[in-house]
Design goal:
The chain is of the alpha+beta class and 78 residues long. The radius of gyration is 12 Å and the shape is globular.
């Protein structure tokens, strides 16, 4: 899941070298944290959160095979 989020985020932002993705796994869930440059935060979230929602939908569909819940957090870099 980490690689999928990273590929999507790097395609959206102006500073792909500043995209950081980390993954934490527990028994029932995988938490994927996405960090981007402060100027790119709006591009990843989108108007009314539409892009963020789309990213979460794609990741959820990709994770449906694993029987685990995937949570995508967009974290402020500051």
């Amino acid at each position: 899941m980490k690689e999928l989020v990273e590929v999507i985020a790097k395609a959206l932002v102006e500073n792909p070298d500043q995209v950081e993705v980390s993954e934490k796994e527990s028994d029932r869930a995988i938490v994927v944290e996405l960090r981007v440059a402060p100027g790119d935060m709006g591009k990843v979230i989108g108007k009314q959160g539409r892009i963020a929602k789309a990213i979460r939908s794609v990741v959820k569909a990709a994770a449906s095979k694993e029987d685990k819940k995937v949570i995508v957090d967009i974290v402020d870099a500051n």
